[in-house]
Write a sequence for this structure.
């Protein structure tokens, strides 16, 4: 049976015009969050000076840095969550996990420093302890989910209560204070210092010794927590898009049965996903300890829902199989820009919740509309 | 054992069977779904496995592919006695099964599916970091699809956007790429349009050209007659006949399927 090239099995034909329209819809559905973010920024740039009668503007170096600092915890919680949800799971424990991490890192740094270790060593040991501690809880989460087949929703809901209890027990329901004062620098120093106006300039790594107006005009560009978060984002992107680990994450979320039959070590993979999620939440807690020079058992809880909102706005499907790290970054940015902008407009802060809620639902509606439109093209 | 002309021919060619099933028994509680079935598959041969609903076709092939574990009997694959604990073991041995649900990930593209679980990687920094070798996987995928003369409008699109027949083609290409020694297809043309059904049948011919033997389970007798060399009929768990496709017709096969004819009964009474 020798088929010529012309008779080759033409599996499916598509007219180029229909294809182009389809691509357009796909493109729009992919970039709408960017476009929306752009519109928001322009809107705030225009409206903030009007409302505040000209003295305040939205687009300043300081404001942009504030936004970046504000999104780091939400983004970090969202990053691990992105992997977990792409694989078809959910991790409800990240909020309290961040709290636990904040407490652990504060206690470990304080005690290590108190026994006479240098500050840098205390910080490093605190970091390792945080990663190991949260990683262990993530390992338990993943093991119960993958091996004992308990739904992720239940397991991580339960473990979030447990983690919460442990965090409060460790702190005796107070904030962990008495941390070495130099810790502040780790959490608040920046890569670049920018001083505007006369006698100003650009300084790197070390805060210039200035006072008065110069100090008031100084902006910290790329504070260390932001730098660390950018590094984690880059690693997450690489992991998801370029490695076998990422490919298996998508495969498991796309068709669990197929992944199993293809010989992917599904159980082991799921366990490492919950460990990843716990550890990124742990890093968020660690950074909050550096930033506030204190450990707090309540710091993470309010961020859980924001982080899930960021993930969903970013286009990660709760059914698994779809999503990207960049999407989650945009989702987190969108929420932070909204929040900051509304505050500057002197709108009551509660409005931010309402707007974020609307955007979350909108995001999912846009995804559905896309599938509907594409489906219609295909059945034409 | 029922000896047919085609089996005799095959033996004359001194070709060892790829798969031999001997006296296989599989029970579910009190129900004997597969009852002392013998079956051979020779290299490059397409064998049709037919029978009424609940005849035991799926159960029989699931015993071969490691999904079920038979109570009794033996399975020989490429001359060796096998006893697959899990489906993945059968797959690693070279037995590919294409089920209706396909075992593909709809959110991944063609080459990601062909390489699923066995991704090609590039080494960086002296093996410290491994990244996916997308270029290689795409090139290899195109090559195997070319051999099978399958064309897609796009290789980078998620396969859930492809038609049922196209996905069937991806599954078959994957099996060919990973050098399946035996392909089992359980009603591969179910839920497909007429045109797509024909394409799948053409692909079965392609597999035959690649010397990959195929077991085809189907209720559509015209399809079975179009592509098979031999037809095995099951009835209530027993093999009631085995005919060379060229020496029978669908009327006769139907009579075996409904139990009106039964070679095994003749043998038992003889
Ligand atoms: N997992 C199982 N547990 C219990 N009984 C089963 C199981 N699988 C199959 N059976 C029974 O075994 C018998 C054979 O089923 P099987 O699926 O092999 O038939 P089939 O020939 O593939 O039928 P069909 O053409 O409808 O697919 C049926 O009576 C069925 O109900
Ligand atoms: Mg069946």
């Amino acid at each position: 049976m020798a088929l010529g090239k012309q008779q080759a099995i033409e599996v499916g034909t598509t007219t180029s015009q229909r294809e182009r329209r389809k691509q357009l819809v796909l493109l729009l559905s992919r970039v709408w969050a960017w476009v929306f973010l752009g519109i928001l920024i322009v809107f705030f740039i225009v409206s903030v000076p009007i409302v505040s009668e000209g003295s305040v503007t939205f687009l300043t170096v300081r404001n942009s840095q504030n936004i970046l600092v504000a999104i780091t915890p939400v983004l970090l919680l969202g990053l691990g969550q992105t992997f977990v949800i792409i694989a078809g799971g959910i991790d409800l424990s990240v909020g309290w996990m961040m709290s636990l991490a904040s407490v652990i890192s504060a206690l470990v740094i304080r005690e290590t420093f108190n026994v006479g270790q240098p500050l840098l060593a205390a910080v490093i040991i605190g970091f390792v302890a945080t990663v190991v501690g949260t990683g262990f809880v993530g390992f338990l989460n993943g093991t119960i989910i993958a091996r004992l087949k308990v739904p992720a929703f239940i397991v991580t809901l339960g473990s979030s209560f447990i983690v919460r209890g442990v965090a409060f027990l460790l702190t005796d329901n107070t904030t962990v204070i008495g941390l070495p004062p130099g810790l502040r620098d780790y959490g608040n120093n920046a890569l670049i210092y920018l001083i505007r106006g006369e006698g100003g300039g650009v300084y790197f790594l070390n805060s210039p010794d200035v006072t008065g107006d110069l100090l008031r005009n100084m902006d910290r560009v790329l504070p260390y927590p932001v730098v660390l978060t950018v590094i984690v984002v880059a690693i997450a992107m690489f992991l998801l898009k370029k490695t076998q680990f990422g490919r298996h994450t998508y495969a498991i979320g796309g068709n669990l049965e197929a992944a199993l039959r293809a010989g992917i070590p599904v159980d082991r993979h799921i366990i490492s996903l919950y460990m990843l999620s716990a550890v990124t939440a742990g890093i968020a807690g660690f950074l909050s300890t550096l930033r506030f020079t204190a450990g707090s058992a309540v710091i993470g809880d309010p961020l859980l829902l924001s982080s899930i909102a960021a993930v969903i706005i970013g286009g990660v499907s709760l059914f698994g199989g779809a999503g990207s790290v960049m999407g989650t970054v945009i989702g987190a940015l969108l929420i932070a820009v909204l929040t900051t902008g509304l505050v500057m407009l002197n709108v009551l802060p509660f409005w931010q919740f309402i707007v974020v809620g609307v955007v979350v639902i909108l995001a999912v509606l846009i995804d559905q509309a896309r599938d509907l439109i594409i489906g219609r093209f295909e059945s034409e | 054992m029922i000896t047919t002309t085609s089996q005799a021919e095959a033996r004359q060619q001194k070709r060892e069977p790829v798969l031999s099933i001997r006296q296989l028994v599989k029970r579910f509680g009190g129900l004997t779904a597969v009852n002392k079935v013998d079956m051979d598959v020779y290299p490059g041969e397409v064998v049709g496995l037919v029978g009424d609903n609940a005849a035991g076709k799926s159960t029989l092939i699931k015993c071969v592919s490691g999904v079920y574990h038979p109570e009794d009997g033996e399975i020989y694959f490429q001359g060796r006695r096998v006893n697959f604990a899990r489906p993945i073991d059968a797959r690693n041995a070279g037995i590919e099964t294409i089920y209706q649900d396909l075992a593909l990930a709809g959110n991944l593209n063609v080459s990601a599916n062909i390489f699923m679980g066995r991704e090609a990687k590039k080494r960086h920094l002296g093996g410290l970091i491994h990244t996916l070798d997308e270029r290689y996987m795409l090139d290899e995928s195109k090559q195997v699809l070319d051999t099978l003369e399958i064309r897609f409008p796009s290789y980078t699109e998620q396969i859930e956007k492809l038609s049922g027949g196209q996905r069937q083609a991806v599954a078959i290409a994957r099996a060919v790429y990973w050098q399946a020694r035996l392909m089992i297809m359980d009603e591969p043309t179910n839920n497909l349009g007429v045109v797509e059904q024909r394409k799948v049948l053409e692909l079965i011919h392609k597999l035959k050209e690649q010397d990959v033997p195929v077991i085809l389970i189907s209720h559509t007798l015209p399809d079975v007659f179009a592509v098979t060399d031999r037809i095995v009929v099951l009835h209530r768990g027993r093999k009631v006949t085995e005919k060379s496709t060229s020496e029978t017709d669908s009327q006769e096969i139907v009579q075996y399927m409904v139990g009106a004819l039964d070679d095994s009964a003749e043998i038992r009474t003889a």
Remarks:
- Residues 24-379 of chain A form one domain.
